[in-house]
Specification:
Largest sheet: none
Order of helices and strands: HHHHH
Number of helices: 5
Radius of gyration: 36 Å
Number of domains: 2
Structural class: mainly alpha
Oligomer: single chain
Number of strands: 0
Distance between the termini: 94 Å
């Protein structure tokens, strides 16, 4: 079996060296037909597995950015609500020293979150009221 394989391989190699133009033409026809067949298969019968390779989580930043943005927005909403309640307290003139410190702290935290996530300003709505 092994010797017949070697003999047929030798025959093909000898034929290719004796007829280089035919070998080149046959090779190019085979490559062209296989390329066209591959294009037709890719266009008319696309694979379901194409482009479904997911990058490692280490390199995918979009989900992490979305999570931090959502968390920042939640924190900003909490701060806005607390500032609103302190504004109501201020309107009733019931503010204490601790409340003013709390307002400063909340304002600083809000600015820090706003700069980090660069989302719109809910604080301007509080100032206008």
């Amino acid at each position: 079996m092994n010797t017949t394989l070697k003999q047929t391989g030798q025959k093909w190699l000898n034929w290719a060296t004796q007829h280089p133009k035919k070998f080149f033409i046959y090779s190019m026809v085979f490559l062209s037909v296989s390329f066209i067949g591959s294009l037709i298969q890719g266009i008319f019968f696309p694979s379901d597995n194409a482009f479904k390779i997911k990058p490692p989580i280490l390199y995918s930043k979009s989900k992490m950015e979305q999570n931090t943005t959502v968390n920042n927005e939640k924190e900003m909403a909490k701060i806005v609500n607390e500032l609103k309640s302190l504004k109501v307290k201020s309107d009733r003139k019931e503010l204490q020293k601790e409340d003013s410190l709390r307002i400063d702290y909340l304002f600083y935290q809000y600015q820090k979150l706003k700069n980090a996530s660069s989302t719109g300003g809910n604080l301007s709505k509080i100032k206008n009221k």
